[in-house]
Amino acid sequence: MSYRPLNILAASAAAFGVAAAANAQAPAATAPAPKPIARTAIIAEINANYKAVDTNNDGAVTVAEISAAQTRAQQSGQALFVKRRSEVFTRLDTNKDGQLSAAEFNAGSPVPQPRRADPAQLLGQMDGNKDQKVTATEFGATTLANFDRVDLNRDGSVSVDEQQKAMAANR
Asked: How many domains does one find in the chain?
């Protein structure tokens, strides 16, 4: 099942102050491609979540039931967190001595490597006269052009108001 409906349901459950139980099982680093969601599936999930909160099945949710559902969701989330943290610890503890050395910790959390842009492409973007060299003027041209675009009153300074207007225009 797609996680997208679960995220929508979590938002509707949040109106009652509870997290959908399935929301605690968020997708891994690579989420599946979004799929169409049927309204009937959303209604079924809402009804299931409502039933989970309306524990006395009287067709009405009370403050006490919402509080109890919040407590259950919090306990479930904490248990899942502890379980995942323990799994990570076990995976990192390669010599299985119950302790993490700095080497084990660092091996399990490598330094992220940022994606590097193609240097030839960057040069091409900055090289205004296309001579395969970038002068200091060409190097700063894009940044200064952006500054000038945001400096609406052309006073050589970009105010907070001008920054906010530029951000709003880029949305």
From this structure: 2
Give the list of residues 6+ apart from residue 121 with CB closer than 8 angstroms, or none: none
From residue 108, alpha-carbon distances to 21, 86, 89, 93, 114 in Å are 29, 14, 9, 9, 18
In angstroms, the CA 92 to CA 167 distance is 43
Three-state DSSP class for residue 111 = coil
User: Which residues are within 8 A (CB) of 118 and not within 5 positions of it... i.e. 6 or more apart?
Assistant: none
- Pair (97, 13) in one structural domain: yes
Q: What is the per-residue pLDDT across 45-69, written as a single tens digit (0 to 9) for each? A: 999 999 999 999 999 999 999 999 9
pLDDT band, very low/low/confident/very high, at 168 (cuts 50, 70, 90):
very high
Place of tokens 């105010």: 159
Rounded average pLDDT over 115-130: 90
Chosen domain end from 70, 89, 108: 108
Query: pTM of the predicted model, to two decimals?
Result: 0.45
**Alpha-carbon distance 77 to 117, whole Å?**
39
